[in-house]
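Have a think about this chain, tokens included, and walk me through the fold.
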Amino acid sequence: MNETAAQEAITQAHHEEWARVVAALTRRFGDLGIAEEAAAEAFATAVERWPADGVPPNPGAWLTTTANHKAIDRLRRENKRDDKHKEAQMLSEDDPPEPLGAIEDERLRLIFTCCHPALAMETRMALTLRMVGGLTVPEIARAFLVQETAMGQRITRAKAKIKATRIPYRVPAAEDLPGRVTGVLAVLFLVFNEGYLATGADTDPVRHELTAEAIRLTRLIRALLPTDGEVAGLLALMLLTEARRTARVSATGELVSLEEQDRGSWDTALVVEGHRLVRERLATRIAPGRYQILAAINAVHTSARDVRNTDWSQIVALYNQLARLDPSPIVALNQAIAVAELDGPEVAIAAVDRLEDKLAGYHAYHATRADLLRRLGRSQESRAAYDKAIALAGNTAETAYLTRRRDQLG
């Protein structure tokens, strides 16, 4: 097998098997740190051996077995012959699996473990993105708009706390699920966003394996909590966003904005399912949460057959409602984008400029500002804003789009 084919197989295996391997090792050894390090060593071994030996028939099983051996070797080297080591030695692949609780998918069980209430919310999200999503520390840092070193320390501290406080790798009981779901939904939303608009310059601009996995896991939670409005809202939001995936990047690798997309290429089945979920939540007449409002905004966008038919007044009203629940600067930025369509760029630019102190390091802030300045005829300022957005954007398709828009200024 040539090296390129082997590398492609390893990349695919990492996308598909990382969370499974980490979950299996966490269950067996009861230590998230050991699980992560052994999984990483197994993939490193695959990089060395697969080009020469060929890709095994079952990559996931090969990686799990190799990682198990790596973990046991590490425990022996460190002479940690405590109860954990003895238990690991006694376990074998022939042992019957432990009884499953309310959650029967190991990756979903791992998410709930990483999202334990003893951890701070941001720590839960970062840890789960690393352990379950398989994202690198730089990718997670970009998602949180923080420095890479700070994010690495946060994840390290989280694993240390899990070990020190003996947070168990345990399936939550059914009655515990509602109280644990908020952090899980936040994590899945971040995983989906990383797939929908990848932040790494050395990755595909759209990572379908991440969006598909986020949707799959959200469907599982929906089956567990069928009456939870925010679970339904997040699923609807993902479906309506995923429906536009194939229209978002051109044949030349450039991001295609919503107003320029071929709406005929959107996935009709996903749009229909997303709209149905939104209508079901509206019919309950229960005050919606954040994800339900975001889903409703996307439902308005996907209801318009042409961008000129978009009901911007409804979108602005929904953003006003969202801002009361989530008065974050990013919500305010998106709110201003909608206001620009309804009341004009003059009104919107004033709102955007007020966000500079909070969003100076966020590429979308500068991209939004550049577009508004362009519409106002302030070309020199617009060019400067595009330059800042391009410097901060990590997505290759988005960089190509912003560069073209900047160059059109002349």
User: Anything to note?
Assistant: The chain is about 70% helix and 0% strand.
